[in-house]
What does this fold into?
Amino acid sequence: MDRILYFKCQSGISGDMAVASMIDLGADRDGLMKVLDSIPADGFSVRISTVKRSLIDVCDFDVVLDEDNHDHDPEYLYGKGHADCVHGHGHRNLSDVMEIISGTDMTEGARRIAERIFTIIAEAESKVHGVPVDEVHFHEVGALDSIVDIIALAYCVDNLSPNGICFSPLYEGTGTVRCQHGVLPVPVPAVLEIATRYGIPMIDGECQGEFVTPTGIAFAAAVRNIEVPDRIIVRSTGYGAGKRITERPGFVTAMMVDTYRTVACGLDDGAPQA
It folds into this structure.
């Protein structure tokens, strides 16, 4: 199979990391900005830049909120997208988010991906908190910056149009993370629920902090449709930055690859013929 989108998650995954990696890989920036400009909500801007991680130039995708829209403290997040939800008031529920997605000018393929990512998160939070899906109220993932991240994820995947999508095991950290209503162990329950329900492989690392966010793993669950091939030919590469400097490299690697076929390449032992 050709044109496989392969995410190497050696430093975990969050929504903004994955978006940045796909922009760096070649997703249409102008098209992305047009979609984000059409989101029926005010109070945010998007900044795409190049930053250093482990002395490597990598792409950074940053949703900058106006002061009135700050719903969470990103200091505690490896990337953006940590989810904490309760059966409460004052925050968006799934139907609120779906209404925003419905009002955004994007292809139907991208819209379906965005809706699926949010549905996966809502179902996980429903299970964890013991409330019906339509009564789940989002805090951080319902915040405007995370909605923008998820719409951007959906656009970039749809724009790149791979024939298959796969992920390496997701590297996770250890310790705790502070959420809207207290401190949770890493991985947080919503991440574990999505990993369990969708069979997402994870690596239990030793570095302190949250490396896999609910948005990141929900993205993997929503779009992953093949296993990582045994042998690949890398055609292009993109790097997406996380927001914190850690012991890990600090970026997601996105690659467009082809499967390595010995017969098609005229090989008989896995090595090029002279």
